[in-house]
Amino acid sequence: IPEIQFFGASTLHIKICRHWGDLPAEQHEDLRIQLLSHILHFSSGPRMVLTRLCVALASMALNLIPQAWSEPVADMVRAFQPQKPDSEDNPGAKPDQDPHAHCLALLELLTVLPEEFQSSRLAQARRAQLREALAGEWAVVCGMLRQLLQSQDSSVQVKEKVLRCLSSWVGLNVPLGETQELVQDCFTALSDPELFDTAVETIVTAISQPDCQRFINVLLSLMPLVLGLHDQLKTAAQDGDMETTHVNETTSSLTLTFWYTLQVYKPVYFQLVDVLLLKSQYPSQEEYACWSSDDKEQFRIYRVDISDTLMYVYEMLGAELLSNLYDRLGRLLMDPQESAAWQVMALTSFPKHSVGKCHFIHCMQVR
Q1: Is the separation of the CB atoms in 65 and 133 below 8 Å?
Q2: What is the secondary structure of 292-339 as a DSSP string?
Q3: For the Importin N-terminal domain, which residue ranges apply (predicted)?
Q4: What pLDDT is stored for residue 354 in this prediction?
């Protein structure tokens, strides 16, 4: 009965996670072999039982790394390769009956390993030791994931698991420079509608890690791939596919913090200022009167976020931005048509930021 099997697998995980010291060291190897054997047995399901067994083995690995189990990932990959009965590396193994299911089971195991590490309660020194040990296994994981993602024989299900596995491992702060080629492969997956959502999530996760800004050259190498999505974005917008485009104002704020980390080209930032000033502009009085109180509050918060982003931009552009804004104001004052629209002309002085710098008056439109 699946429910009983799930209970047994969950109990096994709890015992390994919380009462590891109760298991004699001489029984560790036998338990490892048994867990691998059961994961292979349940590779075709039930899924909930398979996942709990994978979590149990991942927890065991975290208790043994690195002294008693120096290369867990490499050993796991070998264990899931097609084996002859009673082979030396996998005693008691049976001929591989379902390579596809075994591949998915291996990917599940490799996905939950970093997740179990992240959720485990560990002393700081032990966490650092495990992180370093797992990072040393990344080369094995990366090579396998690239091979599966590029293979024409890989099913959509396998490729989706590859993408989720990558997301799990980049959470270990694997340097972007070491995931660059695999992230580039993820852009190829965007052309498959069945993989699109997962591929987007994986790419965003990979380039949103805290130390990614150290890899400016890698980010720049990805820019042509991002720009290459223009036609796909345009088509989705024309078809009204909002799930793909996300071109509404409720999601555009997600990009605001991104611009602070992408300190590459100043002209891009000046264009960003133009866009932000336009987005912060109030609508016509007739349209604004139709807004609900919630809409008005969300717009107020949105403009506060924009003002913070402009402050970040000022940290980079400095006096050049002030000069640009003053020139803009001068042109507006000299243009009779523009000066008639208060939404374009209005200025406000936001709370002044000064850390050895001149005060910055945001050129933004307010009511």
Answers
A1: yes
A2: -HHHHHHHHHHHHHHHHHHHHHHHHHTHHHHHHHHHHHHHHHH-HHHH
A3: 3-40
A4: 34
Predicted pLDDT at 347: 45
Chunked mean pLDDT (size 10), the chain, 367 residues: 91 92 91 93 91 95 91 90 56 62 95 94 91 92 94 94 95 89 93 91 88 85 87 78 64 62 71 86 87 91 88 84 83 68 55 37 39
Q: For residue 272, give the nearest of 257, 286, 283, 287 by alpha carbon.
A: 257
**Cis bond leading into 2, ω under 30°?**
no
Q: Buried (b) or exposed (e) across 51-65, using 16+ Cβ within 10 A?
A: bbbbbbbbbbbbbbb
Write 272-280 long-range contacts (CB < 8 A, 24+): 272/313, 273/310, 273/313, 273/321, 273/324, 273/325, 276/306, 276/309, 276/310, 277/363, 277/364, 277/365, 279/249, 279/252, 279/306, 280/306, 280/307, 280/364, 280/365
- Which residues 6+ apart lie within 8 Å of 196 measured at CB? 189, 190, 244
- Model confidence pTM above 0.70: no
What's the CA gap between 158 and 174, in Å, rounded?
Answer: 22
Q: How many CB atoms lie within 10 A of CB 303?
A: 21
Residues written for the chain: 367
Cβ atoms 163, 198 nearer than 8 A: yes
Q: Provide the residue type at 243 as one letter.
A: E
Q: Quick one: pLDDT at residue 326?
A: 82
Residue 36's closest CA among 60, 64, 62? 60
Tell me how far apart the alpha carbons of residues 188 and 359 are, in angstroms, rounded to a whole number.
46
Output the six-digit token pair for 361: 């008056």
